Amino acid sequence: MLKRGGYGRYLWRRTGFWPRLPPPGKGTMRIWIQAVSVGELSSISKLLEMLADEKEIEIVLSATTSTGLAQATRNFSEQTIAIGPFPLDWWPCSSLAWSRIRPDMIITIDSELWPEHFEQARVRGIPAMVINARLSDRTFSRLSNSSLARSFLLPKGLEILTTSERQRSRWLELGLDPAHVRTTGNLKVDAASRGKLDDNQTNALRDEFGFSSESLVIAGISTWPGEEEILIDTVSELGRANVDARLLIVPRHAERRKRIIQLLENQPFPFHLRSQSKQAPAGTIIYLADTTGELAQLIQCADLGFVGKTMPPNRGGQNPIEPVSIGLPLVLGPNYQNFRETCGDLLLHEALLSRDSAGEVKTAMMDLAHHPEQRNELRDRALAWMEKQGSPSAITFRRIMEVLDHHRD
Fold first, then answer.
1. Res 1 pLDDT > 60
2. Buried residues in 357-389 as b, exposed as e (16+ CB within 10 A)
């Protein structure tokens, strides 16, 4: 909160003092959807449109971070009746917010488990659902080893819509009722398929970054500490091989900019910060996109990419679906535990590359840089994989409507 700022603006609502919403009209059901930040909000964009098209549904949308609230207000005001910060998950704050919002159903996204929020639903007999549900290795281990944590965080009747069959098995191992745990697929698949840029727009992005239209652009996607160095070394070696390589760095946390700037200042390449101005001078070699919520758009001008949080000592990985959706050839390190099912399936279909060490990652990117035919093969396989995924948003939407209809009866 201190690093990102912007929390004071909604302080009263965070303590539960939401505006008093009028009760839903006759036959209308009100859904309260909670998304932590930008990533979760992006994943439900298509689902929100589908719900908003239903005349008998009202949507209240909350988010936790200030950047998430800004995106929710900017992108989803027309689909919702109210947008605001998620209240502190403490009885006085949660109870007050519930009394003012009065939902008929609550939905959280990914791995959001709020015990007081779920308790408010239980005592009111309101259905609660977690969509796009996944459990990281650490969360699964902690819940497996603590019956007390399970009793607080996983109330009876909680509906779980998981991203994969492996994730479904994890929730079942924790003791949830199989009738309430379903596999619906990853909502990121639908969200990532939207907002694709045409050739003129991608060329305009390259110009904005100070890159030549003929340059080879490498994207560092949601990078973590130590990974920017690998990418800079790769660009440096390509330069020595007479390849006009440019680097777009989109760090996972924009507040790391000071540390990354220190790194860039010790390099010989001209660089530019997006937070200072979007337009970089011509001839820029490294463009640091130290902003939030733009990754899906910015990486569309790249020729190949590296997915962050995959190189030791970092663990867990970042979601590869957004770059895969545009056919961006990808290289990963060995650590993608949080997205093992998605990455494993992509590797099985030879739609991305994974390497075990920094040297091997650099070599793989060098090979792709020198061989456009290999990049084209990865691109075609990635797009073919996306085509096979169908529409998780449509499956999720149907299950939400079934639960609502059952609750209405």
1. no
2. ebeebbebbbebbeeeebbeebbebbeebbeeb
Q: What is the pLDDT of residue 194?
A: 67
What is the strand order of the sheet 245-251 is part of?
271-273, 286-288, 245-251, 216-223, 304-307, 330-332, 353-354
Q: Residue 292 has what DSSP assignment?
A: S
What is the CB neighbour count within 10 angstroms for residue 73? 14
Q: Are strands 271-273 and 286-288 parallel, antiparallel or unpaired?
A: parallel
Instruction: Name the token pair of 172.
Output: 């079942």
For 317-371, write each residue's pLDDT tens digit.
Answer: 999 999 999 999 999 999 999 899 899 999 999 999 999 999 999 999 999 999 9
| Residue 63 tokens, joined | 């988010």
CA distance 225 to 266: 16
Global pTM? 0.81
Enumerate the β-bridge partners of residue 162: 133, 183
Interhelix angle 165-173/137-144, rounded to 10 degrees, is 20
